[in-house]
Design brief:
206 residues; mainly beta; Lipocalin; 2 domains; 4-stranded mixed β-sheet; globular
């Protein structure tokens, strides 16, 4: 949501095999939920046909004018939040990883992206992004940021990872057991919390 109360949402596969129906797109809605604009990749139809939802991850505002979107295809898009641009109207796009699910985290001009092949930190400007660091080889759950630490779960092994948000250096690991693809830590009262199976873990921040 931007400072004017406009809401940005991403959609999954549409039903159409010919006419555009707002599937696999980012849509801007007014506070009264009226459509104000949209973006869709030029290959929206192929995404429909391949079950490659753009909406597997929600959009993230990096600033008041820059919005980041990524989906199952692993292609990241930078959009102008004031003018989403319609079909093919991105400001910049590039392959980030093999596929992404869940939700991103934003700290300043850095976007942390959960991918099926690792956690990726992207340094974003107004018209491009570049990889700041990446921890590869595991399916990452949706991350959160506390201070200068980014937290994400390895959803295959249940290991909670804490990284230096600037360098990607490992600061903390702990195996909490079985988790799902969309399990994300949360933070409150000076602690990080993780729900895993029948347990709720609390880790005190220091």
């Amino acid at each position: 949501m931007d400072s004017s109360g406009n809401l940005f949402v991403a959609t999954g596969n549409g039903a159409s095999d010919s006419a555009f129906d707002y599937g696999n797109s980012v849509v801007e809605l007014s506070p009264s939920l009226q459509p104000l604009g949209y973006f869709a990749p030029t290959d929206w139809l192929q995404l429909n046909q391949g079950d490659t939802d753009l909406g597997s991850v929600g959009p993230a505002l990096v600033s008041q004018s820059v919005l980041f979107q990524i989906g199952k295809e692993g292609v990241g898009y930078l959009l102008n939040s004031a003018n989403l641009g319609g079909i093919g109207g991105q400001e910049f796009s590039g392959q980030v990883c093999s596929s992404s699910f869940g939700g991103t985290a934003v700290s300043g001009n850095t976007v942390f992206v959960p991918c099926t092949d690792g956690l990726v930190a992207l340094l974003v400007s107004s018209n491009s992004f570049q990889v700041l660091w990446k921890d590869s080889g595991f399916p990452a759950g949706p991350p959160i940021v506390t201070g200068n630490v980014v937290w994400a779960l390895d959803t295959s092994t249940g290991v909670l990872n804490g990284y230096n948000s600037s360098t990607g250096a490992s600061l903390f690991t702990f195996n909490v057991g079985g988790v799902t693809r969309f399990t994300t830590p949360s933070v409150g009262d000076g602690s990080v919390f993780v729900a895993a199976g029948e347990y709720l873990y609390s880790f005190q921040l220091s």
